[in-house]
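User: For my dataset I need records formatted as: sequence, then structure tokens, nothing else. Please produce one.
Assistant:
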Amino acid sequence: MKKWRISDGGGPLGINLVHDIDMICYLLGPVKYVQAFKSNSIRKYKVEDTASVNLFFKSGALCTLNISDTIASPWSYELTAGENPAYPITDQSSYFIGGTKGSVQFPNLKYWYYQKERSWWNRIHNNKINVQKSNETLINQIDHFSKVVIKKEKPKVTGNDGLNSLIIFDAINKSSKSGKKIKIN
């Protein structure tokens, strides 16, 4: 195991979660509070191997993230998105976003909804949203980055977006050590 992977910042919170924060804030807006718990009980390294994070958004939306490097799982983003040929692809989704009028799973892009009244007693329906997947996602990212550098395009993600994710990430770390809810300013 590489030394940086077992030191502070090298677990799934620092390596993977920060990208999830980017996407979730893009979809749900600003975070108001975070509360997190982490454990290293499986690998016993200094860094976490499992974590649970709750995000409370200014809009009133709630989000729960469960992260682990120690479970057998077909649901990681790398295994579900098919963006990177280095990872074997599954036909699963890694994100499930529930709303009062409908819910979506990603990256399979299946939309779930009720045709009439929302009720556990009514049949729930789903539509598959067909999108052409690209095996060139990493190339597209580098292409966009190079166009930003030479000022042909504006960045899709700004420096402030990245800073916001790091502020939330820092609050998650603080909460996971104290067990307390942390306010994001």
